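Structure ticket #2291
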Amino acid sequence: MIDCIIIEDQPPAQRVLQKYIGDMDNMNLKATFADAIQGLAFLKTESVDLIFLDIHLPKISGIDFLKSLNNRPNVILTTAFSEYALESYEYAVLDYLLKPFSFERFVQAVSKVTISQTELSQKEKELNSTDSTDIIFIKSGYEHIKINISDILFIQSDADYTEIFTVEKKHLSQEPLRHWEGILDSKKFIRIHKSYIINIARIEKISGNLVRLNEKTALPIGRAFKEDFMKRVLH
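Resolution: structure written out below.
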């Protein structure tokens, strides 16, 4: 299922996109916004696979909206002005729909998202046929990166996204911290702060209100989380 949003200030154009999305069995419209500021606020707490984005918007243009996104999902631009096509592709948009566009042209654009979704689903099936409990895929920009869960040191919330720190490197993910709190095994991972989830197996020592994971990494234990943390770790 492709989760998407519409950012479009013209009601007739909104209705066309809503109708086309509703006619697709593999698409879920999460919200429609009349300006980019509302869309930005939504994306701070929610994740989507695809944005239908108009270029001419009040307050912030579609192009400026694209520039402001750190980790962009797939974007299909919708506009009545063809002169923006070349500039839009500088921002790696998936496709460019020139208004008015047909349902057939809409399907052609969306099929580019479906291809990437299918490839990811196939990878997940392959993992499930073996042992997928120790592996996760994170969506980082336009990529899906495989990570061994045992390699994760900690996960940090950072504004509109999260940073996953492993033994070797750091990965950016557009998922919020509560997403990882929900999918990771609570026997192996614990939230110690409003901004941190840690791998319990990676704890080297606890010093007062600090958890040390290695020589370079010491993270604070939040007051609201300390009692539960100490009970679970020092049981």
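Closing remark: Confidence is low (pLDDT under 50) at residues 127-132.
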